Amino acid sequence: MSSHGDPIPMTSSACGPLTGTAEVPGDKSISHRSLILGAMAVGETTITGLLEGQDVLDTGRAMQAFGADVVNHGSGSWSVHGVGVGGFAEPDQVIDCGNSGTGVRLIMGAMATSPISVTFSGDASLNGRPMARVTDPLTLFGCKAVGRSGGRLPMTLVGAVDPVPVEYTVPMPSAQVKSAVLLAGLNAPGQTVVIEAEATRDHTERMLAGFGAEISTEITDEGRVITLTGQPELKPLHIEVPRDPSSAAFPVCAALIVPGSDVVVPNIGLNPTRAGLFTTLREMGADLTYENERAEGGEPVADLRVRFSPDLTGIEVPEERAASMIDEYPILSVVASFAKGQTHMPGVKELRVKESDRIDAMATGLRAAGVTVEDGLDWWTVTGLGHGNVTGGATCASHLDHRIAMSFLVMGMATQRSMSVDDGGPIATSFPIFEPLMGKLGADLRRN
Ligand code: S3P
Which residues does 425 contact at the CB level (< 8 Å), separation at least 6? Predict the structure, then answer.
């Protein structure tokens, strides 16, 4: 089932060269944070290039329920009139975060140090995902949480009346957990310290600094030590959201495997905590270049130029790179299927608790398409067949996971036989224009 409606079965078939310009939507991580931090600032934050995917729209609706005035001015242009740190009102309805782990976890952090009670829920995928990783540190601030067994949604959080600042070492590489703690620290007096052993995406830190919070990051032997001074007055900002590297990954990888392709994907955010896939693809022999490298809104940005690459080879993906490409392993496993030799991907336990168990979802579909995949708890290996040799012909389950659906549809653009997914509906959570955008480049995508 699609998260919002009936399933949308889709099929993708081999196509001619993909050519042209792929203008992918705004960054999902930055879009969520723009709405949440805008709601916690005093005055009006303006945003251009906001991702208008279902996940982000659900976060916007939630901020409205907390008392912020969230207005859509059309064409990705939005404004948020914030209520200030500690100014959230108690919503009078359940906060439904749909499919979005980022949405629910960041909003939990943002409300945990305000004296309000909030009940959170989501779709079947989100209601199955672990929330204790967020509520454990939030209870240290004085917040209480009661949910279903296994720390799952639906769940009610009772925010701290007298919050205390905390020092917390994040036990897994998770920007969502780190961000939840930092957002909670905003309304706690004194300094909240978050320590992460492995660097994860740092948009929250960059944006908090942009909104005027006192925040610093020190690199130590323990990892990154982030110190935030609580109870600042956040000043509203104008935010230009860069385009999402995680969405860019789909046209980029499609162009690599479809013969004759030559595609430009402009204006892509290349924050080093996000760009690991592109480094990996180049190591595999991808013809992928960065053009017009520049900085926009505090984030590095470039235009990506990608051409069909018939001689890709499998590689060992360094474990320490995992956090910087965690959302890109599904589509990397597709590219690895068209490479020669093995691509080994270690250190990826987190893939098992995303919108779906992404190792399992991809391994099942790849095997059905004729590719050999081995996997363990925190690793997997794809044995590539080389360009032109991947059979395809499988119908794969999306498991309410946008990136699984898009990965198999990209795969079908270069397999001998078409690839189908049982439900393309979840694609709308992060990449609502995927179908027309890929179609314009030359892909043969159909709703069955
Ligand atoms: C995100 C963090 C990552 C990522 C997700 C977006 C964020 O999740 O997978 O798509 O915006 O903070 P984890 O924090 O669970 O690694």
Answer: 1, 2, 3, 4, 5, 6, 7, 8, 398
Q: Rounded to two decimals, what is the model's pTM?
A: 0.97
Cα separation, 341 vs 427, in Å, equals 30
Query: What single-letter amino acid sits at 359?
Result: I
Tokens of 29: 């991580």
Is 327 a residue of the active site?
Answer: yes
Buried residues in 77-92 as b, exposed as e (16+ CB within 10 A): ebbbbbbbbbbbeebe
CA dist 131 and 150 (Å) reads: 8
At residue 4, the pLDDT reads 56
**Nearest-CA residue for atom 13 of ligand 1:** 174
Residues listed for the chain:
448
Active-site residue (options: 96, 244, 327, 423): 327
- Residues 379, 390 contacting (CB under 8 angstroms): no
Q: CB-based contacts of 52: which residues, under 8 Å, 6+ apart?
A: 25, 76, 432
Distance CA 198, CA 177 (A): 13
Residue type, 156: T
Q: Is the dihedral angle over the CA atoms 49, 54, 55, 58 positive or is it negative?
A: positive
Amino acid occupying residue 190:
G
The CATH number corresponding to 28-162+175-185 among 3.65.10.10, 3.40.630.30, 3.40.50.970, 3.30.1360.120 equals 3.65.10.10
What sign has the CA pseudo-torsion 198, 319, 272, 329? negative
Residues 6 or more apart whose CB falls under 8 angstroms from that of 424 comprise 8, 9, 10, 398, 405, 409, 435, 447
Distance from C-alpha of 396 to C-alpha of 409, rounded to nearest angstrom: 10
CB 264 within 8 A of CB 305: yes
Span 332-376, pLDDT tens digits: 999 999 999 999 999 999 999 999 999 999 999 999 999 999 999
Supply the pLDDT for residue 296.
Answer: 83
Which residue reads 């080389």 in tokens? Answer: 386
- Judge whether 10-26+242-447 and 28-162+175-185 match in fold: yes
pLDDT < 50 positions in the chain: 1-3
CATH of the domain spanning 10-26+242-447: 3.65.10.10
How many Å apart are CA 183 and CA 319, to the nearest integer? Answer: 28
Out of 170, 176, 401, 403, mutate this one to test ligand 1's pocket (max ligand atoms within 8 Å of CB): namely 176
Question: Is the C-beta atom of 356 inside 6 A of ligand 1?
Answer: no
Ligand 1 contacts CB of residue 59 (under 6 A)? no
Give the chain's end-to-end CA distance (angstroms, integer): 15
Distance CA 187, CA 165 (A): 9
